Amino acid sequence: MVDIKRNPTRPVKIGSITIGDSNTIAVQSMTATKTTDIDATVALVELMHNAGADVVRIAVDSKKDAAALAEIRKQTSANLSVDLQENYRLCEIVAPHVDKIRYNPGHLYHHETDKPWNEKVRFIAGVAKDNDCAIRVGVNCGSMDPAKKEKYDTDDSITPMLESALEHCEFLDSIDFTRYCVSLKDSDPRKVVEVNQRFAAARPEIPLHLGVTEAGIPPEGVIKTRMAFEQLIGKGIGDTVRVSLTVPNARKGEEIEAGKGIISDIYAGRVRTVVDFNTDSLNIISCPSCSRVENEAFVDLAEKVKEMTQYAKDHAITIAVMGCRVNGPGETDDADLGLWCGPKVVNLKKGTEALGAFPYDEILPKLKNELDELISKRGM
Predict the structure, then answer these.
(1) In sequence order, which residues have a C-beta less than 8 Å from that of residue 298 and are 6 or more positions away?
(2) Which architecture does CATH list for 12-268?
(3) Are 242 and 262 in contact, with CB atoms under 8 Å apart?
(4) What is the pLDDT of residues 76-117, one digit of tens each?
(5) In sequence order, which ranges of 269-348 are alpha helices (DSSP H)?
(6) Other Cβ atoms within 10 Å of 314 Cβ, number
(7) Does residue 305 sit in helix, strand or coil?
(8) Chain region(s) in the chain for CATH 3.20.20.20
(9) Class of the CATH domain delimited by 283-377
(10) What is the spatial distance between Cα 197 and Cα 163, in angstroms, rounded to a whole number?
(11) Of 22, 169, 204, 313, which one's alpha carbon is 20 to 30 angstroms from that of 296?
């Protein structure tokens, strides 16, 4: 076994487990069903719980979702986290039924736009404290604090993420709420490594949740995640992890298996990051199937995109396939070509430029045309 000196993070209790303070690194995942489909959501929670998930996250975006979550809580003993979307006030309804509340600083600007973000965080923290909940401050490359994003060059997505996380930590500490962890996620494993290393250097006592967002379809999604985890966990950084894979619901247990396997390999010295991630080849990123996905055909589409684009595998082009309107528009901006999927149509983008919305059965030829044109223009 490799002797890894963990960062001296403080303990944060989440239901029956505690992360940080040298406790075993926890592995978690997120449901991909509609939260209002109680039976399907409970079945998926139990699938992941039985696969060894220490925490299972469920998205809540409406009062109907919140009511469903209350019933879900009755039917499972898993440690539950709630993923707050734009409506931060829903935390008051769902907190009695979960063990952790996750909020995204970038999403706090979508409702009650005249109210300062710190008032909203004070509200969330108060609700969490009253209901014995931990908090995760989940900073994401695709939905950042707009004020932070505007301060820096468009090529620098790391510094705004870092500043946002540090600002929220400072505020939570100032109101005497320290039962929280932080995540800083990007689809590029190198950026995940850099931003988490910088955060850990600045605030080594705060537990970190690690993940590569939109890691994609296995095995590539596992490889990208492994690259980041090996370089971070191997240096003592990271207290809980999620492997975000684009897989059907019946295979969501693979996220847990992959996470546990990567951690086990790191501690056994079986690391693979001597293999460079080839940035001169086609890079397809796709988000994990979650309850925000508005059409399950998204998962099949991601597989078809991977298959159709094999002819371009030696070209340095990034294609993003996103499953929802919450993060999809923002998280395709940095890709050369992007697809974000709605209930009935797929929105095609070239960088930040919208190219139109097309039915699912018509999108692949449209994407291929744009891909061929991009290869031709670059003289590849």
Answers:
(1) 289, 321, 323, 341
(2) Alpha-Beta Barrel (3.20)
(3) no
(4) 999 999 998 778 999 999 999 999 999 999 888 877 888 999
(5) 297-308, 328-331
(6) 11
(7) helix
(8) 12-268
(9) alpha beta
(10) 13
(11) 313
